[in-house]
Design brief:
Blueprint (H helix, E strand, L loop, with lengths): L2 H23 L1 H21 L4 E11 L5 H18 L6 H11 L5 H5 L2 E4 L6 E8 L2 H22 L10 E7 L12 H26 L6 H7 L4 E6 L10 H4 L4 H13 L10 E7 L6 H14 L4 E6 L6 H5 L7 H5 L5 H4 L1 E2 L6 E3 L8 H5 L2 H13 L2 E6 L17 E7 L5 H13 L4 E9 L1 E2 L2 E2 L3 E3 L2 E3 L22
Parallel strand pairs: 5-12, 6-10, 6-11, 7-9, 7-10, 11-12
Antiparallel strand pairs: 1-3, 1-4, 2-3, 8-9, 13-14, 15-16
Helix pairs in contact: 1-7, 2-7, 4-6, 10-11
Length: about 475
């Protein structure tokens, strides 16, 4: 097989897996709409008035001589005349007589909608069909229309030399009372309803997938950006009570993912022994960047690093509240020269990070974060700690964080599954790039997992994987930029 042929096959497989992912994700709505289509069909079958169709056949002939040529010419003329006179069945000249003869309480225009005529190919036969809610009445109408058509044809036909009409019509086959209704048909209507519901359900699922720009899995991030996903953190409802899952549940799936994140972060600057600082941020508020910062700090401290956790979100600081620490003094206290760093830093003990809370919320957070004093403080703590983790404000609502990012070793951006959107994530990444800062990677937070595995199918670097498989430490060369790790 050629390379191009192999790629086409792989693309087809990837597309097939993507559609399977859509089916798996929206199967409830697909099944619901399919059942709804079936229910609608049953309702239609039960409530719609029955329609019966009866048919009567009229034969058209043309007088001819006795020779073979004359007979052939007459036969052809009869076929032509049948096609010519068939439309007469819906005219007032035919239907008014039917209404009078049968005593129908309707108009010619209304009756015309229930009557039709057809001419089988290469025949001089006219099939008259009549539809009615009563089976016996449909047969009477079909015969009545056929008889009226015969009279109309005979009356309008020119006379021959013998005084008889040249064009003659007779009823070849009278209508019989239909034994079954033609509409609605139970099995057919039910099948059509189910198929229609299924088609609508599939279309709805695909439309939702196309219009849904939110981040759901790590695959959504890798497909939309050039930056690696360095961790995929499962949604853990217990974090609402205790965000420090590394301490509260050290053997949980979330704790293991934070340890994998710690491992992936260490792939950066492998040749450097100097202390390093990195900021943790997000596109918008509520994506879990603070909880991520805390647990990253604990994971690093667990491995023996001397770690400082800094709350630099001076808009809505949360670290002191989460860790039940003193919140009135901290970063702003140091930046305003009201106390030294050593006076306000709060040690948590062996195997835990030290914490510099945010302190009092200032009226000018952007100026403080971007100040020379802030840069000096970073230089100071970098000499005292091997790693500094800085929780910062989200990027899109405020500009505080952008002035800080060029002065740290790198930036980790958190994207919450089901909340963050691809446009918001791209906008945040673009802001960091324009600031000249280094992006280490993306942490996809609050991912739906089943049985300890990330849910839904996804594709990664041209290969198809099943995201229910366990996420591994897959560190590869990034699509652009140096020293990027991929999970």
């Amino acid at each position: 097989m050629s390379i191009s042929g192999g790629r086409k096959t792989e693309d087809i497989l990837v597309a097939f897996r993507d559609y399977l992912a859509v089916l798996r994700k929206y199967w409830i709505s697909i099944v619901a709409l399919t059942l709804l289509g079936g229910v609608a069909a049953v309702a239609y079958i039960s409530l719609a008035p029955p329609v019966y169709t009866a048919q009567s056949t009229v034969s058209v002939s043309v007088n001819s001589g006795s020779s073979a040529a004359e007979i052939a010419a007459a036969t052809s003329a009869a076929v032509a005349q049948a096609r010519f006179v068939a439309p007469l069945v819906t005219t007032n000249a035919v239907l008014d007589q039917v209404i009078t003869n049968l005593g129908l309480n309707t108009s010619a225009a209304s009756l015309a909608g229930r009557v039709s005529a057809s001419v089988p190919t290469n025949t001089a036969l006219i099939t008259v069909a009549a539809r009615d809610s009563n089976a016996a009445r449909s047969a009477k109408i079909a015969d009545g229309v056929a008889a009226s058509l015969v009279d109309t044809i005979t009356a309008s036909s020119p006379k021959g030399g013998d005084g008889n009409p040249v064009i003659q019509a007779t009823i070849a086959s009278p209508a019989t009372v239909p034994g079954a209704r033609t509409s609605p048909r139970g099995t057919q209507s039910l099948a059509l309803g189910i198929i229609a519901g299924l088609v609508v359900g599939l279309g709805f699922a695909i439309l939702r997938k196309v219009l849904d720009v939110r981040v759901h899995t790590s695959a959504d991030v890798t497909e939309a950006t050039d930056y690696p996903v360095i961790a995929s953190i499962p949604r853990d409802l217990s974090l609402a009570k205790n965000p420090v899952v590394m301490m509260a549940a050290p053997t949980s799936a979330a704790s293991e993912r934070y340890r994998e994140l710690r491992t992936n972060l260490r792939f950066f600057d492998l040749d450097s022994d100097s202390p390093w600082t990195f900021a943790v941020t997000s596109s918008i508020e509520g994506e879990g960047k603070t909880v991520t910062s805390i647990n990253i700090a604990y994971a690093l401290a667990e491995s023996g690093d001397k770690v400082l956790l800094v709350d630099a979100d001076l808009r809505r600081p949360k670290i002191a509240n989460y860790l039940q620490l003193e919140a009135r003094t901290g970063l702003t206290t140091v930046l305003l020269n009201r106390a030294g760093f050593a006076d306000v830093v709060q040690p948590l003990g062996v195997g835990c990070p030290d914490v510099l809370a945010a302190g009092a919320i200032p009226p000018n957070p952007a100026e403080l974060i971007g100040s020379r004093r802030m840069r000096q403080l970073l230089e100071q703590v970098s000499r005292e700690y091997s790693t500094v983790v800085i929780d910062t404000a989200p990027l899109l609502p405020v500009a505080d964080t952008l002035s800080l990012l060029p002065h740290v070793s790198g930036t980790v951006i958190v994207a919450s599954a089901g909340k963050a959107t691809i446009p918001e994530l791209k906008s945040a990444l673009g802001s960091i790039e324009r600031a000249g800062a280094r992006i280490m990677g993306i942490v996809v937070n609050k991912v739906r997992w089943r049985g300890g595995h990330e849910y839904y199918y996804y594709t990664h670097e041209g290969h198809t994987h099943e995201a229910r498989g366990e996420v591994k430490n897959d560190v590869r060369r990034p699509k652009k930029g140096p020293n990027r790790a991929e999970l």
